[in-house]
Amino acid sequence: MQEMSKGANIGLAALSEDAGSVIVSLSWSSVAGDGDADVSVLLVDSSGKVRGDSDFYFYNHPAADDGSVQLLGKVPTENGSEDRISLDLTAIPADVVAIVVAASQYGGACFGDLDDLRMAVTDRSGEALLGFSITDATVETAFIFGELYRRNDEWKFRAVGQGYETGLAGLATDFGITVVEDDESDDTSTGTEAGTGTEASAGSGTAPAPEVPGVVSAAVTLPAQATASGDRVAPDPAPEAAKPEPARRRGTRTAKKKVTLPKAAKKSLAENDSWKPARLFPVPSYKSDREREVRATSVLLSVMAEVPEFGRRLTAGFGAPAGRMQTFTEVSLPHGETPKRPDGVIRVERAGKLWTALVETKTNGNPLKSEQVQNYMDIAARRGYEAVITLSNDVALEGTPLVAVKTDGRRKHKVSLWHLSWAEVAHQAQMLIRHEGVGNAAHAWLLQELLHYLQHENSGCHGFQNMGPSWVPVRNGIDSETLCQGDPRAVEVVESWERLIRQVCLRLGGELGQKALPVQRAKRGTDPKSRRTELADRLCEEGKLTAELRVDGAQSILAITADLRTGKIRTSIDVPAPEGAYPLSVAKRLLRVLDEAPADLHVETLVEGRSGTRGTLERLRPEPGDLLPKDGAAITGFRLSLLKGMGSSRGSTESGFIRSIDEAVDRFYASVVAHVGQFEQRRTSRGRTAADSAGAR
Questions:
Q1: What is the pTM of this model?
Q2: What is the b/e burial string over 454-483, where b = at least 16 CB atoms within 10 angstroms of the residue's CB?
Q3: Cα 608 → chain centroid
Q4: In this structure, how many other beta carbons lie within 10 angstroms of the beta carbon of residue 546?
Q5: Which residues sit opposite 461 in a β-bridge?
Q6: How many CB atoms lie within 10 A of CB 372?
Q7: Most C-beta atoms within 10 A of its C-beta, which of 197, 462, 518, 628?
Q8: Which of 614, 593, 505 lies closest to 557 in space, CA to CA?
């Protein structure tokens, strides 16, 4: 890999023979676990400006219609998070001369608060081509990490590392986007009215771009952080009946041209509840796992080929170009004396060239087989295919390969091995049909039928559903106090716990239409194996599995603790108290916000350096003053917690541990976190008002 210094440039062709499609990664870490940033991409022409609104890609406008640019979202790393961007350079319009890759922060944060700021570029096979680290970040709230630019029909990379104290608005202005600041308003009606947000329109005079969810036609909605408010604009999701919405960043909202489906089902015309609606993909009782695999593969691949947004979403991260996709099942390929039959084949055509991936599928918790995957890797290498994709209920972790394969370094052609979990497939389908939208109603219906199939109990596609063979011995060892530090079975349980939390994030993020990621609090440079070993030793000593996750747009981090000694699951958040407010007023407002929360919710007052008073919501509602410290100490915040019994079995059955974690998170988020957002918004608003008043003086 070529390590770049600030200002240096290099041609991609000199680094790889297969750089027509690349993955750009922006990463950072935070010891505190609470640092984050948003990526953005700008396409500019020879004038150094964007051609129009559609040339600006960010969280409200994540993908180009032609698939040339696609924000793939965040993935957790051992020390922080990484944002990935797919760029199909062969599909970039000819009048675009440069692709600017940037990131911005919000809520008063700056890049000096983050560690390990880094940009990396890999080719379609996953091989790292170059890396660029930014080490001089201080008060900047936006950064141009680098740019890809054309020079004599060749794409080159330049390490930029330019920061802006004026946030994304200042950066956008430099590239021809005119920023318009709206007055703050609490108007929440529907239509095309503006709330607190910042609008930006390209000054190039081009025709308005087609509308996309959360983006105003002829105006790009930027984070309000770029001005002074500290809020960001989120897409306006479809109505949700089952759960309250989380606190959302306010901003301009418009009607969408892309199609989403409401969660609330239409009134049924059936005479009684026993009638079952006809399904495109019925799920009968299968006689064998093989039947499940064949049907699941065929259902998924057919929908990928018919719904372009969905097919690109799943393959862009694997280096596939944007083009015409065809999918096949049960293809016979020669291999030695006996032909091999991969479960599926994906082919994408772009500019007369083919990208091909073999697909190996497992359902119902069955593990992938190394020998089988190795055969497909060898076949792909000999036939000049680009990738092998494995798909199973398991969730991949850094530093822990799902299958061991060997690659022949003497072969000039490279084959990349990628993994998808069924939970990721369901997450992407849900994000498209519930929140981001697809091209037409037929595509939305197809994705709805696919999602129903994946979630059916007989499909075998439920995602990670087994804590592994070490679960029961470890629980018994903790109960009898015979489990010792260094026991490898504890490491296996920690890995299973991490997979479960990743799946919880995918499911919760799909429900809310927001990014949800596990928070990793690790020292800089800690490798995944060492981190998991340390967590396993802590499990042996304390008997607890702990995790934290952050939902984009929420102020607080959700903590999950599974106490294997007591058999209890604790879900909790810490809510900071506003500065300078009257304590009793703060306590009363918090209890009003929690009016619909469960009566057994534990509320604990936090004061500097120690715990304060505590009690259940049922006891505190009549007497809010009981939350105040008796010695008059200043309140720094409140800790809200719910306790739930833990399932004993290792699976996802009614009495299983996995289901109990899902239910605990769902209940806590719907009944507590979603409502606390109102308290946090009021706290943020008070903070801004006080700051504005101080500035006026």
A1: 0.80
A2: bbeeebbbbbbbbbeebbebbbebbeeeeb
A3: 34
A4: 17
A5: none
A6: 16
A7: 197
A8: 505
